[in-house]
């Protein structure tokens, strides 16, 4: 046969194009598109289905310890298997530095964890919590050149947060070396102050997490993060946005031509703060930061998904078992302050967006492809190897059955979390066949992928990280004073 695999009669949809035709795959890459004459060792008839670029999930926590020291429930096997079942063929988890650690060592450790287990391809972002001279001067520039071209920094969480001063150091470095900085934007002191007074009055249940993490804490930190980026003319991406005012702030920054990118997640279209309001400690299952808000915020998130304020829709999969060893719900021993933050979402990210977005007419399939795959690959330096359907690109594809009805049951999912925050929800549309580098890894509910068959991807320095060349006027004068932190 001329090809390893040919998908026939597909309705092929990418971020830019739609076409009816065949996809021929050889040696893991797309070899031909259109009317393919040659035959395949294997052929799949995709009549009546959509073929989309395999999902790229650029915000996932796998085999990572939280700021509070709690271990994720998913390792690189269950995490990537769960991703594949949900139509995702690339993940970008974090290699997380905790204070005192060498970033180089951190990266080695995550590779050791991922290499023998991952079943789909992966890159890494770095989490920088300790920007020492060694990290800023040597480790980060070298790691960026080695293909780790994005890093996340935190404005909150005691163990991870960096100061505004440190943010400027990191932004200036990213600007100079061609990396993209991702920011968790919440005002730490506002949250701590509210939490302290809630706990003082005996309000310790999970539902108070959604009160302590006030909307204005997200709005303020988003505004401040953008101001810091403006000072030094560094592009920035604000992760997991949930809130109306913060979204407006990003929209305005973009309207002024600033390179501010933004991400949102399934929990902000499908959950609300009321979900945390459950008897006893049950609400911990819906705890994430920022917390889900209300229906008005959900509408603002949809507006941002439609109008392009959001570039990427990621899961922020942060899996913690509610009944770890049958004892402690997500670490919640005394108050909501100790509870692990995060909800699972790797497997349902795309089905939820398809069902709630495409099927309802809120977004079209091109936007779906952009938000679920293409923009992630572009923003983080993996395009066009990942994120599209084009000759020469990796054959990472998801064949979607738009009619397939699924009722969410955690028992049918493939993560190791033990519950789903979306239990009982109706979903219309499902990725029935998932292909990673030409390998059919999921088909009709069955997995066919060996542990360790996923490959590490080095990220290029992304266009998104290129500065505008317009720092704040005072910053621009620094060169004349002999100070050149930017160049
Ligand atoms: O609640 C969340 N989002 N937990 C994961 C860690 C993070 O801040 O992304
Ligand atoms: Zn975060
Ligand atoms: Zn909290
Ligand atoms: Zn996260």
UniProtKB/TrEMBL annotation:
GO molecular function, one term: hydrolase activity, acting on carbon-nitrogen (but not peptide) bonds, in cyclic amides
Cofactor or coenzyme needed: Zn(2+)
Record-stated family: Belongs to the metallo-dependent hydrolases superfamily. Hydantoinase/dihydropyrimidinase family.
Occurrences of domain Amidohydrolase-related (ranges): 50-441
Species, as recorded: Vineibacter terrae
Cited CDD domains: D-HYD
Residues spanning the membrane: none
Record function comment: Catalyzes the stereospecific hydrolysis of the cyclic amide bond of D-hydantoin derivatives.
Official protein name in the record: D-hydantoinase
Coiled coil ranges: none
């Amino acid at each position: 046969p001329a090809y390893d695999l040919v998908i026939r009669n597909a309705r092929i949809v990418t971020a830019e194009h739609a076409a009816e035709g065949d996809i021929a795959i050889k040696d893991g890459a797309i070899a031909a598109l259109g009317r393919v004459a040659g035959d395949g060792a294997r052929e799949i008839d995709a009549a009546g289905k959509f073929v989309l670029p395999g999902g790229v999930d650029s915000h996932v926590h796998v085999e990572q310890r939280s700021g509070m020291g709690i271990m994720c429930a998913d390792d690189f096997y269950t995490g990537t298997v769960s991703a594949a079942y949900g139509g995702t063929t690339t993940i970008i988890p974090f290699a997380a530095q905790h204070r005192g650690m060498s970033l180089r060592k951190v990266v080695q450790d995550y590779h050791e964890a991922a290499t023998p287990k991952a079943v789909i391809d992966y890159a890494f972002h770095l989490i920088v919590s300790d920007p020492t001279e060694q990290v800023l001067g040597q480790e980060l520039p070298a790691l960026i050149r080695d293909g780790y071209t994005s890093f996340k920094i935190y404005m909150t969480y005691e163990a991870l947060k960096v100061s505004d001063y440190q943010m400027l150091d990191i932004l200036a470095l990213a600007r100079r070396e061609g990396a993209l900085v991702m920011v968790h934007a919440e005002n730490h002191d506002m949250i701590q102050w509210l939490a302290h007074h809630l706990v003082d009055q005996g309000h310790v249940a999970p539902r108070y997490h959604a009160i302590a993490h006030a909307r204005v804490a997200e709005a303020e930190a988003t505004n401040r993060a953008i101001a810091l980026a403006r000072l030094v003319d560094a592009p920035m991406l604000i992760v997991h946005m949930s809130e109306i005012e913060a979204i407006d702030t990003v929209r305005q920054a973009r309207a002024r031509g600033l390179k501010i990118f933004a991400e949102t997640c399934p929990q902000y279209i499908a959950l609300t703060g009321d979900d945390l309001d459950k008897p006893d400690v049950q609400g911990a299952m819906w705890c994430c930061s920022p917390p889900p808000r209300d229906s008005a915020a959900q509408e603002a998130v949809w507006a941002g998904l439609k109008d392009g304020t959001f570039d990427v829709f990621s899961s922020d999969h942060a899996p913690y078992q509610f009944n770890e060893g049958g004892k402690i719900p997500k670490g919640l021993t005394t108050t909501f302050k100790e509870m692990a933050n995060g909800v699972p979402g790797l497997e349902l990210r795309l089905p939820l967006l398809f069902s709630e977005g495409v099927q309802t007419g809120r977004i079209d399939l091109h936007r779906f492809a952009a938000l679920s795959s293409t923009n992630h690959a572009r923003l983080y330096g993996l395009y066009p190897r990942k994120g599209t359907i084009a000759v020469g690109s990796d054959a990472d594809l998801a064949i979607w059955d738009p009619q397939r009805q699924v009722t969410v049951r955690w028992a049918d999912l493939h993560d190791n979390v033990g519950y789903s925050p979306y239990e009982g929800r109706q979903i219309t549309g499902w990725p029935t066949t998932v292909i990673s580098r030409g390998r059919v890894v999921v088909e009709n509910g069955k997995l066919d992928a060996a542990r360790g068959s996923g490959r590490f991807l080095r990220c290029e320095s992304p266009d998104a990280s290129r500065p505008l060349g317009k720092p704040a006027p005072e910053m621009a004068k620094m060169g004349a004073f002999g100070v050149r932190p930017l160049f």
